[in-house]
Amino acid sequence: MRLHSKLATLSPVVHGARDYGELARLGLPPTEVIDLSANSNPYGPHPAVLAAVQAALDPATLAHYPDRDCLALRAAIAAADQTTMDRILPGNGATELIHLLALALVEPGSRHLIAAPTFGQYGHAIRLLGGEVIETRPASPESRFDAEAIAAAVRRWQPDGIWLCNPNNPTGQQWSAAELAHLRAADPAQQAWWVLDESYRYFAAAPTPLAGWAEGDNLIILRSLTKDQALAGLRLGYVLAAPTVITALRAAQPTWSVNALAQVAGVAALQEPVLAWRQQSLDCLRRHAVGLWARLTELRYAVLPTDTTYTLVAVENAAAFRQQLLSQGVQVRDCASFGLPQHVRIAARRPEENERLVAAIVTLRHS
Ligand SMILES: Cc1ncc(COP(=O)(O)O)c(C=O)c1O
Predict the structure, then answer these.
(1) Which CATH architecture has domain 64-271?
(2) Which pLDDT does position 352 carry in this prediction?
(3) Residue 225 alpha carbon, nearest atom of ligand 1
(4) CB of 37 closer than 6 A to ligand 1?
(5) Is the CB of 199 within 6 Å of ligand 1?
(6) Which of 34, 269, 284, 357 is deepest in the core (most CB within 10 A)?
(7) Helices 260-269 and 71-81 meet at what angle, rounded to 10?
């Protein structure tokens, strides 16, 4: 009797956000830690979403299985994204859907291209299924992604899958429509699967338009409501893809993967007034982010350019820097797991929280 051989070679993906065990060891109550390590909308969830979840907290909802077809939720997504319900598959956060996509797209030995540094879950899910991960990486963390270098890698390796994150985590860089068109042109017969993770779509001032380059049944888009709607604890994401892809993914997805409260929250979150709030609150966050980058620059940190409300900041030793700030109740993301041991990722929050970060850094420098 033995475990699956793949499991012996894999460790869990490293993430930002609260590590409850670590906080307990440090004697820090989680609610007292300012978390700038997760990219999230600090103004959410919207009161209408909270009210919808509270209204659903009744025995009739909790005691019954949720709608396994997510009908109301898919209708709300279809209306918000101007598509049809047969092109939508909700899941228990984008993370579940990344693994589901890997299950659908990764044959043992198949090749998958990833533009590093990027979200660690893609490589993990691909390797788990026996796929080969090919990484492209800019010459230095300061360099912007180079669309031509990635297009050249597509032409050279002819991968079975290309996994892109737009805007990217951890860099905050957003691909333009022209860059994405250039990338897709590197696969003229459109033989590869193109997975575009848009979990941070609305964190950019002007999300990349989808027309033109986004056509074709080999393009799969992934979205999440856990960040822009601040529903990370509830878990909700969805795939947008051709109906044939959705049908295949559904067949492999665990039934009832989206719980009743997440479905209710998602419907409320996708109504027009809440969508307008999402835009306004993230616009406001973007202004505060610019203010924070200026403060960090004054403190002589190299703040890398970003199109979003989170960015990479150069420090000498990311692990030590994170640890020293955490001991003061402020958390940033050590980017060593992205291959960047001298960078932290900082996600701007409300001004008073950003000021706590600045104060913690000043204290650190005087200690
Ligand atoms: C690029 C990217 N995609 C997906 C996810 C996972 O999102 P979810 O909370 O919906 O599982 C994350 C979380 O950090 C992420 O950074």
Answers:
(1) 3-Layer(aba) Sandwich (3.40)
(2) 98
(3) 10
(4) no
(5) yes
(6) 269
(7) 30
